[in-house]
Automatic annotation (TrEMBL):
Database matches in Gene3D superfamilies: Vaccinia Virus protein VP39
Methyltransferase in keyword set: yes
Name of the protein: O-methyltransferase C-terminal domain-containing protein
Keyword set, alphabetical order: Methyltransferase, S-adenosyl-L-methionine, Transferase
Gene Ontology MF annotations: O-methyltransferase activity
InterPro entries the UniProt entry points to: COMT-like, COMT_C, SAM-dependent_MTases_sf
Keyword Glycoprotein: no
Domain O-methyltransferase C-terminal stretches: 232-409
PROSITE patterns linked: SAM_OMT_II
A Gene Ontology biological process term: methylation
Length: 435
């Protein structure tokens, strides 16, 4: 870090510390029983009573603290993640709009909850709450206002909330009519069909450059640096299921030339054709010598390949549990061809962006946040929406994956929490991990 940033951090630390001490003094003399409301059921009267004006010194301290905290937040957040947050604002607005339409805030405050309502219990209250609805709430801030957002904000949410609450669509994960996809789809086409239409070739090129390049900037360093590819044996065969744009293989093969990995791209014919056509020239040698291959494979059919590592990035989250189990059935059968084979799943995990500490007075959230979830929890939850809105499917928590993978004959061997909003779950065949 630059010297200037280090001294700036020190200046912020000193200022925030000093102002918090002053605030503590001021508050305890003004209202000795008042406690911050972050984790409380009711608003904090000291701050939230619209008729109450805090003493001027307290108001000034609060204003200064917000300024310093904004500077600190900005300093510790990479620009690319700030942009993700801003770019995904419409999803947050859609979530808030849904919460307002259903009057969720009032339901939480009333009996039987009196201010604290786990999502599962809220679901029982409505008898019909869908996982889509739960996902929408997961990307709201910890304490959301029940105030109605402006008409402009609602407009920018694009009608997602209607689809989340409509009986015809709210339970769907299908790419044609899931709440999020329905808003994106044009003239009845799914996003994939739209992109596959030759008339939209320019759009495909744009998204190839824009979306893949953009996502890659957010996750590539972690994919390469946070999973121990270097531990794999020389010459390991890596099968890339539903490889899509193929960038993972390019990145890994470029970074580890001395490992002589064999990368097997699997996908549908047109995707493989496109990939072959635009494959980078500096990797053509490995294509010619057979270290990089392209294999036509529907992953819902018995798999024709054999390999040491079965890599699936963003595959399982596109499917409902039944379909995932079907897919895993084919992969685990194929894994049995190679002793010691592992499956590595690169996904976003549904995460708790905030938690309730055991004792709100003495502990801070960062010491209690669950470990088995994506880092950048709030961004992770928001990112799940861009997946939903393009392809359908459902994101899962670590615990949900564990149950599903166990049912599918796998056991999570190691969880790598990436230094971005994704994780890698490394799985072994159950019978091998038990042996
Ligand atoms: C499921 S996502 C995977 C994204 C890709 N792994 C990545 O990291 O960018 C989309 C890709 O999966 C492919 N795909 C979808 N259904 C498939 C299937 N049944 N069998 C094989 N590939 C499939 C699509 O053609 C597309 O290239």
């Amino acid at each position: 870090m630059h010297r200037t940033n280090t001294s700036y951090l020190s200046a912020l630390r000193a200022s925030i510390n000093d102002k918090l001490l002053q605030l503590e003094d001021q508050i305890s003399s003004a209202d000795p029983h008042s406690r911050p409301h972050l984790f409380e059921a009711t608003p904090w009267p000291f701050l939230d009573d619209p008729e109450y004006l805090p003493p001027q010194p307290v108001f000034d301290l609060l204003d200064d603290l917000r300024l310093d905290l904004r500077a600190l937040d900005s300093l510790v957040t990479p620009t690319r993640f700030k942009l993700v947050e801003i770019g995904n604002l419409p999803y947050k607005v859609a979530a808030l709009e849904t919460a307002v339409l259903l009057n969720v805030a009032e339901a939480i405050e009333s009996a039987p909850f009196h201010g604290y309502a786990p999502l599962a219990d809220l679901a029982k209250l409505w008898m019909s709450m869908s996982i889509n609805l739960a996902a929408s709430f997961a990307c709201l801030p910890a304490s959301s206002s029940s105030k109605k957002p402006s008409a402009e904000c609602m407009g920018s949410a694009g009608g997602i909330s209607k689809d989340i609450t409509s009986p015809d669509t709210k339970h769907s994960f299908a790419e044609r009519d899931a709440p999020f996809c329905k808003v994106v789809s044009k003239s009845g086409k799914t996003f994939a069909e739209y992109m596959g239409d030759p008339e939209n070739a320019a759009m495909v090129e744009l998204s190839g450059e824009g979306v893949v390049g953009w996502l890659n900037k957010l996750t590539r360093a972690s994919l390469l640096g946070d999973y121990p590819w270097e531990e794999l044996n020389e010459g390991s065969v890596i099968i890339d299921l539903g490889a899509g744009a193929g960038d993972s293989g390019m990145d890994v093969m470029r970074k580890f030339p001395n490992k002589h990995f064999k990368w097997v791209y699997q996908d549908f014919g047109p995707v493989l054709d496109m990939l072959k056509k635009s494959y980078p020239s500096e990797l053509q040698q490995q294509v010619s010598n057979g270290d990089i291959t392209f294999v036509l494979q529907d992953y819902f059919e018995p798999n024709v390949s054999a390999g040491n590592v079965w890599y699936a990035r963003g595959v399982l989250h596109e499917y409902d549990d039944e379909q995932v189990l079907q897919l895993l059935g084919h992969i685990t059968s194929a894994m049995r061809k190679t002793p010691g084979a592992r499956m590595i799943l690169n996904e976003v995990l549904n995460s708790s962006p905030a938690i309730i500490p055991v004792s709100a007075a003495e502990t801070v959230p960062s010491e209690h946040i669950p470990n088995k979830q994506s880092a950048l929890a709030s961004t992770a939850n928001t990112m799940t929406w861009s997946t939903f809105s393009l392809f359908g499917g459902k994101e899962r928590s670590y615990e949900e994956y564990e149950v599903l993978l166990n049912k599918g004959g796998l056991r999570v061997n190691r969880l790598y929490k990436f230094r971005t909003f994704t994780v890698m779950m490394e799985c072994l065949l159950q019978e091998e991990s038990d042996a």
